[in-house]
Structures are given as structure tokens and as C-alpha cells.
């Protein structure tokens, strides 16, 4: 039965295993197998270790990152202005022996899709 809370004793045992892994300098996969745990379990322990160490030391437990974090990008010095982007899309279609290449205004994409459906049949 899985318990969401590990006892301090069990956390101490796991941290000792992780310290042994670090001291060995070996590969985690081989180390996990030799200790009878799965590699995935060992990786999970490694990701929780900083929080467990803080908890045992009586320190504030670091917050876990949650969800999506949007990256903030700074504009490049050579960035192209939106109005300088092409106003047409070039589409090349090949269907059997038929081939068509069209330049269609991006502002009228719906009409382009309608034409392509009719042409491709």
C-alpha cells in the first residue's frame, strides 16, 4: 500500500542510499539494480531529496514548481517588424500527376482552404 507521507526514518534510509550513490560515482541504473529498486524509483528519490533534506534539517521546504511557466523573451536586435512579414503564403500541392503552386493572401486563408478542398477533390 502506498503512503503519500514517508516516515522520517524511511526518508533517512533513502537519503543514505542516495549519498551512497553519489559517493560511488557509478551509473544510477546499475546502482538501482544492485539495491533492488527500479531506476524510475531512484530518479524519483533524487528529485525529492532536496525537499527531504530541508525537512529533516527543520528548514523551510522549497516550493515545488507547478504548472506551466511562461518564458519571457526579449526582442532580438535584428527582429523583423510584423508589418514587414510577407502578406502571402506559398503553397505547393501535388496530387498524383497534378501539381499546383499558389501564392495566396494570408488575410484570405479560409478562401484558400475552400479552393484547395475543391481542387484536391
Structural description of this entry:
With 121 residues, this protein is an alpha+beta fold. Among the domains are: 8-56; 87-120, no CATH class. Helix content is 45%, strand content 13%. It has helices spanning 8-24, 28-34, 39-56, 109-120; strands at residues 88-95, 98-105. A two-stranded antiparallel sheet has the order 1-2. A hairpin with a 2-residue loop joins strand 1 (88-95) and strand 2. Helix 1 packs across helix 3 and helix 2 packs across helix 3. The longest helix is centred in the middle third of the chain and has 18 residues, at 39-56. The radius of gyration is 29 Å and the shape is elongated. The model has no long low-confidence stretch (mean pLDDT 81).
Amino acid at each position: 500500500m502506498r503512503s503519500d507521507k514517508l516516515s522520517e526514518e524511511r526518508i533517512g534510509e533513502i537519503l543514505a542510499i542516495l549519498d551512497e550513490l553519489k559517493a560511488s560515482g557509478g551509473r544510477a541504473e546499475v546502482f538501482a539494480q544492485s539495491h533492488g529498486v527500479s531506476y524510475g524509483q531512484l530518479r524519483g528519490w533524487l528529485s525529492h531529496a532536496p525537499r527531504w533534506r530541508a525537512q529533516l534539517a527543520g528548514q523551510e521546504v522549497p516550493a515545488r514548481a507547478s504548472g506551466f511557466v511562461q518564458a519571457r523573451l526579449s526582442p532580438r536586435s535584428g527582429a523583423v517588424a510584423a508589418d514587414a512579414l510577407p502578406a502571402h503564403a506559398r503553397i505547393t500541392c501535388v496530387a498524383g500527376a497534378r501539381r499546383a503552386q499558389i501564392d495566396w493572401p494570408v488575410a484570405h486563408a479560409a478562401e484558400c482552404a475552400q479552393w484547395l478542398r475543391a481542387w484536391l477533390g
